[in-house]
Amino acid sequence: MSFNILGLSEEILKAINKKGYTEPSPIQSKAIPPILNGEDVLASAQTGTGKTAGFTLPVLQILSQEQHLRKRPVRALVLTPTRELAAQVYSNVKEYSEFLDLRSAVIFGGVNQKPQVAQLRQGVDILVATPGRLLDLCNQNVLSLSKVDIFVLDEADRMLDMGFLRDIERVIKLMPAKRQNLMFSATFSKDIKKLAHGILNRPVQVDATPENSTVDAINQQVYRVASGKKTGLIIKLISDGNWKQVLVFTRTKHGANKLCKKMVSAGITAAAIHGNKSQGARTKALAGFKNGSIRVLVATDIAARGLDIPLLPHVINYELPNVSEDYVHRIGRTGRAGASGVAISLVSADETSYLRDIEKLVGLKIPKEVIEGFEPDPNASTTPKKQGGGRHQRPRRSESKKGRTGSQKPKQNNTRGGRNRR
Ligand code: AMP
Known about the structure:
The chain has about 425 residues and is of the alpha/beta class. The protein folds into two domains: about 200 residues, Rossmann fold (3-Layer(aba) Sandwich); about 150 residues, Rossmann fold (3-Layer(aba) Sandwich). It contains 16 helices and 14 strands. The strands form two sheets. It has a seven-stranded parallel sheet with strand order 3-4-2-5-6-1-7, with helices on both faces. Strands 10-11-9-12-13-8-14 form a seven-stranded parallel sheet, with helices on both faces. Helix 13 links the parallel strand 10 and strand 11. Helix 3 crosses helix 4, helix 6 packs across helix 8 and helix 15 crosses helix 16. The radius of gyration is 21 Å and the shape is elongated. The protein binds adenosine monophosphate. The site of adenosine monophosphate (AMP) has 14 residues, from helix 3.
């Protein structure tokens, strides 16, 4: 299928062409037409499926076809859970709107608000924001959301996981009741369905799962190993395989730092990226990882959300996530755009129950191997270790335990026809 039949304008097609995309991804071909039609959309799509263009392209088109209002108040708001994701969505918005007369801005916390305020004062058609700074600036009357026509909630599941439900509700109250709503989520728990029911008005549901070759292309592998031998094993795998770009997940920020130091001592260039790192440090680490000067990026789940790293060949779970859905998010970092990817998990005895939950969720048995010299400890307890206190460490949810078959990705239930409660 070509982008030409989706009803996008010449200016947008020119920008797509400049990015080098030849055909829309499944989520794009499914989401763009109903969004252009003015409908609410509930989309099941994880990072790597092209979801950002899936909502950005039609939103830009709608905005560019309307008259700008005097002073250019915000007409489209994209809410994202993390600064990184906000920055990446914004960079996509800039690229796709290159040939349009639209102004965009991004606002997030952790940096000086002055430049953001200055930009908002000049007028912005499309605003990408994280909830905290957005509400701050609204409270300071620097920003009004009273003219928002289109609201996009990106990575809604992560928003809830990060405790943003109340903030989302506050933001909604600041916008006109009549508007178009688009909600994107990789997973669909009971809470997400409830949120969707509250925000969306008779949404069209789109799902990237059926033709999602990206997730199918992921080669998953488990290595059973003693917990004390994981660092040695990961260093061996990366060195022996001469892997050049590896994203490693740890459960805690402390664990990310510790592993990173050990990698560096072993002669592997590595950087850690997590919530305690400054924005500057995160941006630098990500840039180094992208340009090849850093081979290994060690990240916590939240820090990794929204990282735009195309064609990532290897993802390693140094520890399994205690929430099964995070596994789906993590492995979604590899095998993009039809390229094959490898997702490796190092699993010690105390993670046995996490592995069982993950296999139920993805609906398949992941092949298991033991590497000589890195055997599991036969006497280790299979009771999960007590979790540390990171923000991303959430209690296991009952949804994680429900078995799914035939798909590597959790499927959404049908919430179509959910009435708008406004
Ligand atoms: P996303 O899921 O939005 O994070 O996008 C994942 C990656 O796919 C990004 O690097 C995009 O630039 C890229 N991408 C988005 N749409 C397409 C497309 N139609 N063809 C090829 N690559 C794409």
